[in-house]
Amino acid sequence: MELDPDDVFRDEDEDPENDFFQEKEASKEFVVYLIDASPKMFSSTSHSEEEDKQESHFHIAVSCIAQSLKSHIINRSNDEIAICFFNTREKKNLQDLNGVYAFNVPERECIDRPTARLIKEFDLIEESFDKDIGSQTGIVSDSRENSLYSALWVAQALLRKGSSKTADKRMFLFTNEDDPFGNMRISVKEDMTRTTLQRAKDARDLGISIELLPLSQPDKQFNITLFYKDLIGLNSDELIEFMPSVGQKLEDMKDQLKKRVLAKRIAKRITFVICDGLSIELNGYALLRPAIPGSITWLDSTTNLPVKVERSYICTDTGAIMQGPIQRIQPYKNQNVMFTVEELSQVKRISTGHLRLLGFKPLNCLKDYHNLKPSTFLYPSDKEVIGSTRAFIALHRSMIQLQRFAVAFYGGTTPPRLVALVAQEEIESDGGQVEPPGMNMIYLPYANDIRDVEELHSKPGVAAPRPSDDQLKKASALMRRLELKDFSVCQFANPALQRHYAILQAIALDENELRETRDETLPDEEGMNRPAVVKAIEQFKQSIYGDDPDEESDSGAKDKSRKRKAGNADDVKYDYIELAKTGKLKDLTVVELKTYLTANSLPVGGKKEVLINRILTHIGK
Amino acid sequence: MARNREGLVLLIDVGPAMHSVLPDVEKACSLLLQKKLIYNKYDEVGIVVFGTEETGNELAREIGGYEHVTVLRNIRVVDEVVAEHVKQLPRGTVAGDFLDAVIVEMDMLIKMYSAGQKGKKRMCLITNAACPTKDPFEGTKDDQVSTIATKMAAEGIKMESIVMRSNLIGDAHEKVIEENDHLLNLFSSNAIAKTVNVESPLSLLGSLKTRRVAPVTLFRGDLEINPTMKIKVWVYKKVAEERLSTLQLYSDKAPPTDKFAKHEVKIDYDYKVTAESTQVIAPEERVKGFRYGPQVIPISPDEIETLKFKTDKGMKLLGFTEASNILRHYYMKDVNIVVPDPSKEKSVLAVSAIAREMKETNKVAIVRCVWRNGQDNVVVGVLTPNVSEREDTPDSFYFNVLPFAEDVREFPFPSFNKLPSSWKPDEQQQAVADNLVKMLDLAPSAKEEVLLPDLTPNPVLQRFYEYLELKSKSTDAALPPMDETFKRIMEQDPELSSNNKSIMDAFRGSFEVKENPKLKKASKRLLRDKPSGSDDEDNRMITYDANKHKIDIVGDANPIQDFEAMISRRDNHDWAIKAITQMKKRIVKLVENCTDEGDKALECVLALRKGCVLEQEPKQFNEFLNHLFELCQERKLSHFLKHFTSKKITLIPKSEAPDSDVVDENADDYFTVKQEPMLES
């Protein structure tokens, strides 16, 4: 392997982390969806008031799975799924059991990663269901047929794939029949119940979790105690909470945020030197990084095959292709000072890569502008150095209690940086962890990274206007009115990313319509229009601007940079249309061309030719 | 002077009290000039020193007085001479009067540039401000300073004072210092002037801004409270990383006789269907593809353009929330600053009112921003107040980008309370830790805070420019060692540590750490931490100085151990490659000299294989094995090859290293297949 010169100049810190976090599978999930297809599932469930919203339970189940698959393929595309119907007329499964139909599409194993084709055909399943699969009750007392038993068997067989150590295995069971063996003779019922429960227990013992998604009739709630509580192994505590949570579960399956889920990985292993002779072991995690739509693969547009990119360095003097590491030059003092790639990486190599404690400061020394890039989360590990966790927790507690952060020197980035280690207490809500306990490593800028903009806006000797008490009071009222209720960081989905996934889905599935994505980042218009809010804003405005209908009167000197934007229509000295017709635009200077462009609010970038073309297109319209 | 140029006068106190820090002053100034030579080579620079024995300035010649102020260089375009000059500042003999010097300097700047001239005029005073100033002929010193300052403001001259206060000697009177500080403050309030007090050579290096960036707004427009209430604001970068300049590629292919050779290198990207094919695909024939499950879905640029998320430029307020709601580590990027449009007094007021009220009530604002029309995405961020301490500076907001829901990775971590109690500190240990956190204090008071980011220079850049300077004189100059000054950011301050020695010792004593003895060889990291086979390493304390047994060559005696130590060095990823290369050489030698000692070579090959799997360098090994195979064939060392099969040395297949292009089945029968034809021949 040779040193790639571009590697040396790349922003190296981002690099390893991205590598670490890109689409590598660690643990994955195997899921079998079991859908009851008995005639009962097809009966309408409409509430009498809402006649137009007739939906069968079968439809609810199928559309829920369809939605879930569309999120799944983006979020965890390495997971493998299978879809099985039971209580069917036709049969299709490896065991050749009656009443179970494993749905699949070509180019795919029965349990496999979801594909566009699977999603597409599953979307249309209701149209063809009657013809291809058919509904038929499969639990027959006389013939001892038990389709539920068979379904569990088929699912369990499918889930034999993959080791249970590295993968989660789950079945989702959709049904509206709370007592599948209710109509049987008592002896048969007991027998069937026993064998079915045994089958379910076997599956659970193999590490497969069975999740039930019961669908209730409007007039009669699904009674979990009749049969299914034993099948899914609920104890009495869980029983009470189970039914109320069902609705939420279905919603959750449908409305998942499209978000690529990454496996938990250690981004950096860090040796933290507390003082000479005492080092502990920490793991660094990238808990916050801008999400990207996933890697781009270039394709040949005619064949849609992936394209290989080859980079070559060519000497402009001889046309020869350069091999190996190429020297670099820096023009300096009328000469070209040459550096080898090796020398440049030597320059950057100033430390051992450890994290070295320098001392502590009160939290208010960490200013809001002391930030460069996303932080790294640190959590101790006793795996290699025993005692690390203890020392870490002790420092962690002290720092929280004394409201201090640690300043340290971190050699693991290029360039090495001063970092602030801010202790974070664990925060939990609703049983979930909102903030894990540990320290966040915040990368601090160096002196030359910080710009003194404030100075630029100071007028020496001239006091800047400051608000009066009344104005402050009005501002305070405004802020109280505009308080965001229950705001939490990252409550907004990234609108561009969600749109991208919607486009991707529409194109992949040949959908005619783009799924509407909502831009959650827009201000809450309704809230803003509440009279009290409007009034508070109005009063603040009044206190600052007075009665002057012109919101702003210029004060002091005119802004010099105005001159640069002299693109008013008045300045247009030429008849551009005439010039364009006669092809004389090229005789104008770039500045003159830009005058036209700015006047018509067109972009002004590019070479002269580009500018002319842009004007021509504009006039052409 | 053009608008984007700068005229700078360095005003340096070289009096006896400054001698000890002058080497650092020289370093800082030289870096400043070096960068000017590269990035702003039309800037103009003058140097004035004061505290010299002799006197040499125009004012002294014209009107007398102004003694002990010497103009080393008049304001001229920066050149190599001045860069050299500044490294050999004279050592003065008298205590200098900085006020005299400021007047001389101002006179120079005014004579050089008329008031209306564009461009920036800047003076930089470096002194300890510990020597008394003379009384003016008339009026008080305060009046005099105010007059000078007002004049400077009128002329548009900026002043930076760096006051070095680490090494005050006995004869510096507190009164004098107090007076001088007062005078410097007067400058600040009457002119664009700021004073920075520095306490160490490190912050001296950091305090002189060696990078001059013309500030550019990235947004000018409305901060919209609601559609009827808008505040005019400008947004700038507050923080932006200064990077090492991108060095050009250099080609040495042209013959030395070619005088017109440009020595440039062009980078070409070819897009091909397969690696072997020569057919190149034109840029317009390519289309972006995105993963959708196992497939890649092409999306044409037109589709992207028409369907993509569209934005309108603007800043919209979403509302206010408690500052404590926004944890500090959620800041995602470098920081912007939102200042009110300076020409709109009402906007200045509005920003100020909100900022002050935010500070008062500990609130922050959440805003949604699109900086440019047609920007690909929106950003949601937090405005925090930046209430100015200076009267003449308008209040503003800092803006930090917040993450979107998709940006958060929700990995659970065990709660500290749930960890086994042997992993948690007891009361005594906690007390020791409390003590350390309290006493290892970098900011005993606001004034004494050390290691301020605002005053800390970037060590890598410092070193690069130093090296550049050396290289410009001699091509094969060696890389200079890391400047001593930078020890202060890379290691604990020895003074601070020794003052707190008992606390550090207590901490060390209370928190014993040891390497986990149970770790198996399989662990990659273990390999790295065991440089050579010492026996008692299980209980060895891990010390910072692991560098002692750094191995940088694969020797004859213990090639395997050397190799393992070297490949596991983590101070640079090159070591792995070096180790592999050297190990290969060693093996070839062993094979070539092979008599009957095949075993050692084999062991080395095994070690190399293991190392290559660990380092995920399958190619290195696979190619080498091929090479070795050919070598053996050439030399008719068939017995050696037999060993390979018996020891089951195989290529590294995909299952062991995903980068490998060897399929698992092929790896195993590599030798069986290849060997047969050879045995026949």
From TrEMBL, chain A:
CDD domains: KU70, vWA_ku. Gene3D superfamilies: 1.10.1600.10, 2.40.290.10, Ku70, bridge and pillars, SAP domain, von Willebrand factor, type A domain. Signal peptide: none annotated. Residues 1-21, 544-565 are annotated as: Disordered. It holds the Pfam family Ku_C. It is found in: Nucleus. Residues 585-619 form the SAP domain. Residues 1-20 have a biased composition (Acidic residues). Keywords: ATP-binding, DNA damage, DNA recombination, DNA repair, DNA-binding, Helicase, Hydrolase, Nucleotide-binding, Nucleus. PANTHER family: KU AUTOANTIGEN DNA HELICASE (PTHR12604), X-RAY REPAIR CROSS-COMPLEMENTING PROTEIN 6 (PTHR12604:SF2). Belongs to the ku70 family. This is ATP-dependent DNA helicase 2 subunit KU70-like. It comes from Camelina sativa (False flax).
UniProtKB/TrEMBL annotation, chain B:
InterPro entries: DNA_bd_Ku70/Ku80, Ku80, Ku_C, Ku_C_sf, Ku_N, Ku_PK_bind, SPOC-like_C_dom_sf, vWFA_dom_sf. One of its GO terms (molecular function) is helicase activity. It is found in: Nucleus. Transmembrane segments: none annotated. Pfam families: Ku, Ku_C, Ku_N, Ku_PK_bind. Keywords: ATP-binding, DNA damage, DNA recombination, DNA repair, DNA-binding, Helicase, Hydrolase, Nucleotide-binding, Nucleus. Its EC number is 3.6.4.12. It is an enzyme of class 3 (hydrolase). The keyword DNA repair applies. It comes from the Eukaryota. Residues 278-419 form the Ku domain. It catalyses: ATP + H2O = ADP + phosphate + H(+). Single-stranded DNA-dependent ATP-dependent helicase. Belongs to the ku80 family. This is ATP-dependent DNA helicase 2 subunit KU80. It comes from Camelina sativa.
